[in-house]
């Protein structure tokens, strides 16, 4: 397995943003390393379903804000973030709920905002009874389906790469919202 290389993945995002920009880390876990790396440059909000992980993150990354919440029901005002990252987290939400999460993320991003996320590479949904000592649920669509979902939501997919793991792996995708706000769509198009 290639080890997750958060530093180089975030190296693709950081130069596209400005210091102090607002960034959301969805499914942040204990905040290390990704939230901590982001918090060196940006005003970061980390969200995780697990109160234990949120308590650890608050201890480990004192410069970020954290919320314990389910990304499927979470709400932020439209245009709240310059970027959303989500590493190895959306794939733990049931597949039928994932397109709505991409729609929420798109709404929370400002025009020209970025999404950097780990999604599935091949379709598979299932549970392992003993994943590092606990039962774990995954739900992946294949890469082509994620790209269709993102494009249908209004994202431009800038790239999608295989992150190898064992005999398979995940897709890491960088996508961007349109530089125009949705409320401006169509303005000036019919002259
Ligand atoms: C494999 S960990 C990844 C953590 C971190 N992003 C990283 O890459 O190190 C997946 C995280 O997603 C969180 N998670 C799973 N379902 C979630 C949901 N519906 N809403 C928010 N967080 C969720 C889990 O609690 C867990 O901390």
How are the SSEs ordered, and which strands pair?
Blueprint: H1 6-11, E1 22-26, H2 34-39, E2 43-48, H3 51-60, E3 65-68, E4 81-86, H4 98-108, E5 109-120, E6 124-131, E7 134-140, H5 143-153, E8 156-165, E9 168-176
Parallel strand pairs: 1-2, 1-4, 2-3, 4-5
Antiparallel strand pairs: 5-9, 6-7, 8-9
Bound molecules: S-adenosylmethionine.
Radius of gyration: 16 Å
Strand content: 35-45%
CATH architecture: 3-Layer(aba) Sandwich
Tell me the total number of β-strands. 9
The top-level CATH class is Alpha Beta
| Order of strands in the sheet with most strands | 3-2-1-4-5-9-8
List each distinct ligand once: S-adenosylmethionine
Main sheet makeup? 7 strands, mixed
Features:
single chain; 191 residues; alpha/beta; Rossmann fold; 7-stranded mixed β-sheet; two-stranded antiparallel sheet; 5 helices; disordered C terminus; binds S-adenosylmethionine
